[in-house]
Batch of 3 targets.
Target 1
Amino acid sequence: MSKEKYTYLIKQKAKELGFMYCGVSKAEFLEEEAPRLERWLNQNMHGQMRYMENHFDKRLDPRLLVDGAKSVVSLLLNYYPAKDDQQQEEDTYKVSKYAYGTDYHFVIKDKLKTLLSYINEEIGEVGGRCFVDSAPVMDKAWAKKSGLGWVGKSSNLITPQVGSFYFIAELIIDLDLEYDGPIKDYCGSCTRCLDACPTGAITEPYVVDGSKCISYFTIELKDQLPSEMNGKFGNWVFGCDICQDVCPWNRFSKPHSEPAFAPHPELKTLKTSDWQELTHEVFSQLFKKSAVKRTGYNGLVRNIRFVQEDSDK
């Protein structure tokens, strides 16, 4: 079989597994990203996410992660919820849409393992690894290289006719495939994401100071929330979707068809008072398999109190 045929088989199987898009790029050193990453780290835009400092070389070269790597297969999985599945109460506390259902790491990892097994069955013995946002892989850079979208001013990957509400994952394999090319940037003169960010985390177009992002504060930061952020979180207690919600490209977002991403029925109807009285037991029940577990019960309670104190003033 030719590499064109291999590529076709992989993309067809990816579609069958529910991935929205699949693109392929050559496994090589990310020359453009190296100075950007170095500058971002030097300016301490990763805050307490010290793991971002680790494996600098591996982040930029997939051949250091997989021996003999030839191709990076990038995949997108939609998580945009149907309107009926979105949190209904306007004045209630908010959880980022990506965390409504089962933790995406588990869902995607299973799909990737199935895809890798299929490659080995149909094509022959292929060495490779699956990656879902848990290893030093610059997923947006690879998705961009493989033509799945452009990295917008909010630093989210944006895809024409789709938007940006999706997860990005990779297979890095030692198989030569037919490579896709990047597409044009269609942000134009739009600055909606910069204008809407309440904490000024998007410091300039295409640059996000991670240490100022609501998602960072509510998920990654383990210390007390800084007083200078009082009044800036709105109702967000886990993650934040503001820059995506205001992006004009997300008017094209369509509901996902992944049953595992359906929210717990009670999540949609939780009122502010329910959040404020949240017990460890209810937390465990509501977020049993959710990404919200990352911040833990104490972290979520801290976030709720921080936002609550703002609204009480």
Note: The radius of gyration is 20 Å.
Target 2
Amino acid sequence: MNSKLQHTQQIKTEAKRLGFLSCGISKAEFLEEEAPRLEQWLNQNRHGEMQYMENHFDKRLDPTKLVADSKSVISLLLNYYPSEIQKDKTAPKLSKYAYGTDYHFVIKDKLKQLLHFIKNEIGDVHGRAFVDSAPVLDKAWAAKSGLGWIGKHSNLLTQQVGSFYFIAELIVDLDLEFDHKTTDHCGTCTACIDACPTQAIIEPYVVDGSKCISYFTIELKDQLPNSMKGQFDDWMFGCDVCQDVCPWNKFSKPHNEPLFNPHPELLEMTKKDWDEITEDTFKKVFQKSAVKRTKYAGLTRNIKFLKS
């Protein structure tokens, strides 16, 4: 077995041991196909107030600008699909990815372990770990690495497990065996487009980020626009509608990452509990959660907006 193939197999075996759903590898090179798409999307202001999307345009498309002499992008998926969801069907809803500990911490730790393993087993390898907080086009790299295809709702989809997973990557200066892109299996289905409460999927494969419920409830720091009243489908943080209706997600299986289990009180909270949530309860229930990003003021703003 040649060393390139051996190293690739070692990395994929270790990724599985660390709990990752799957691991795919692609060549670290300029993303030619994505460049015009990203430019057009930004020019049409589909990112709304997310000014950071305009920064580091070149770095978003070229991993060699993030890691000198990088050769490979190792893409990884980590399942977060919960075994249980919120009990009260009338309560404001929270996106499933935010039930447990903030995924940035959980995944970053696993990526550090994987990079440590690579250095120990393979040698003097340099690289960086990325978990959606840097200018990296996660979904594009995962698709290029054969881990799935980008669906009409612009999320990565996989036939075996759907789309309820996080995407992360290691960019390394190690030459590895590359995987191939998979084919698109959305077919004629338009379930996600038809179901989106704010018509944010403006055409197949194009989402207007500035119309997305996740954008309003997480990213937007100003007052929520009156024009959106009654359109949030009771989502107070994030939105899972386009994933919930996707036929491929009938194959989702519950994760086995204890850190993604919700705070014991979270799933039991009623509509009344949410309406009356105090800052102390917020701090207790969301102590290590990604929900802290909105802060108490942001979450209560969203809850009040649903009632108005």
Note: The CA atoms of residues 218 and 294 lie 6 Å apart.
Target 3
Amino acid sequence: MATVYCNMTTENYSDYCNLMEDHSFSVCSSSKVKAFSQVFLPTLYSIVFILGFIGNGLVVCVLVKYHKNSNMSDLCLFNLAISDLLFLISLPFWAHFAAISEWTVGSFMCHAVTALYMLGFYGSIFFMILMTVDRYAVIVHTYTSLFSKHRSVRTSIVLSLFMWALSLGASLPTIIFSQVKNESDGWTCKVEYPEGTAWKSFSYIELNVLGLIIPLSVMVFCYSHIIPILMAVKSQKKHKAVRLMLVLVTVFFLFWTPYNIVIFLKFLHELGYMNTCQREQDLHMAMQWVETIAFSHCCLNPIIYAFVGQKFRNLFLKILKEWFPLCFGHCTTFKSEFSERRTIRYSDSSVFSSTKTKSKQ
């Protein structure tokens, strides 16, 4: 990188380039970043993989076992867990790559792991958007929305397939342009966009728009309309539901905003701003931190979307009682199906009867 940079400069920077060639003053050296990533990334990726795989795996097990009682919200939750699992499966490969600084599993796996990574990334975001819109339609437009009136299994499947198609479409450029390349320090799996094209800049904009701006805007709009309706309902559970919605938006913002800020800075770097070796090194180091923070969000999805819901907790306890009767045999589910219907269930988009009565008025 230093050699290329110096070859592009004029004679005014000859002294600077001479210093660059001196091993005692290697500003653009990535050795420190690489040494840090060899320890940091494998450790953090492993923790995210283990925690996320356990949580999302439990969600899938519960929803598959009791799929006959599933509704659209459950199907969205199932696809969200599948998206997170696809994403998590790619992490051990990236952890191994970071640990040894060389890609050892070939060109096909480079494309395959990149596909898992990108499909899981966009799938998780799109299904969070779908779940948010579903809740908005059911609660805010209970009797007027066509979306609310046709929440059938067939409609849910069609919408899920559409979301997967969108995820694939958004992921295709990265999947296509990923390749195994033999560099000075060994084989790498990376995205190489064609020279002289705007694909790289487009990928940064796509990540910012689809990864933060659209989902955050949808969540803020939908929940800002849902919360006043819930507050107007006479229920002891409404404050808990409102807190959970606020937590959902806040957590998404806190976990994904740093990542998207660094992506935007890389976009500016691509345009020629902050175009120094030191800035590039700083961006690489920052990306390792914010990526790990953003990736750990998939560990929280099962907690936010599933385990806080009464319906899901009942089903989960039921499975534990079947699998481990000695340990969980004494656990009891909530009193009755009737009381469950009257509770604000955050993991279920169905609106309790008092909300519907309020909407009629």
Note: The chain has a mean pLDDT of 78.
